[in-house]
Amino acid sequence: LKLADSLDALGAAAAKLREDMAPYYKEVREMWLKDTEALRQELTKDLEEVKEKIRPFLDQFSAKWTEELEQYRQRLAPVAQELKELTKQKVELMQEKLTPVAEEARDRLRGHVEELRKSLAPYNEELRQKLSQKLEEIREKGIPQAAEYQAKVVEQLSNMREKVTPLVQELKERLTPYAESLKTRFIALLDDLQ
């Protein structure tokens, strides 16, 4: 019963600590969001610029592939109609006819994807460089109010340590007699077994 009471007290203290920490967490989070808002806006702007630059390539890729899909659909329409009328024996023959068309479509798609990748490579590099530059700026300048964040975190950890230490000590004191009793019984049991 004492152990249950101690665990209940520890649980209540942990809930109270969580409740006490909530405003500090919220405050630190809001400070972080406010301080990083400019950086987020800058990165969003850079991404939008890159998106606008690559949009023509994506549109061209989409148009080419849509056109080719329509051509394949037209080429396969008679085959599909034929398939409906075929017996099981002819299905294998039809698969043989379809395989080269499917392979050609796959190869052409790979070619378009490779062409698109080559077209987008400079923009990818540009975006990577801008991101690296932003990260370097953060490394050099640091996040605004980083010292304030650190001070708040240290303060909260100290508060938490002050609140939890007595509870842990009390729990330890209450559990010690039970542990000693259990140890004595275990040794007695080992002696009996010998």
From TrEMBL:
Q: Which Pfam families match?
A: Apolipoprotein (PF01442)
Q: Which Gene3D superfamilies match?
A: 1.20.5.20, 6.10.140.380, Apolipoprotein
Coiled-coil intervals: 33-89
Query: Which GO molecular-function terms appear in the entry?
Result: cholesterol transfer activity; phosphatidylcholine-sterol O-acyltransferase activator activity; phospholipid binding
Write out the GO biological process terms: acylglycerol homeostasis; cholesterol efflux; cholesterol metabolic process; lipoprotein metabolic process; phospholipid efflux
**Annotated localization:** Secreted
One GO CC annotation:
high-density lipoprotein particle
Q: Which residues form the signal peptide?
A: none
Q: Which UniProt keywords apply?
A: Cholesterol metabolism, Coiled coil, HDL, Lipid metabolism, Lipid transport, Lipoprotein, Repeat, Secreted, Signal, Steroid metabolism, Sterol metabolism, Transport
Q: Where would you say this protein principally sits, based on its record?
A: secreted
Q: Show the PANTHER family listed in the entry.
A: APOLIPOPROTEIN, APOLIPOPROTEIN A-I
Q: Which family does the record assign?
A: Belongs to the apolipoprotein A1/A4/E family.
| Functional note | Participates in the reverse transport of cholesterol from tissues to the liver for excretion by promoting cholesterol efflux from tissues and by acting as a cofactor for the lecithin cholesterol acyltransferase (LCAT).
Protein name, per record: Apolipoprotein A-I
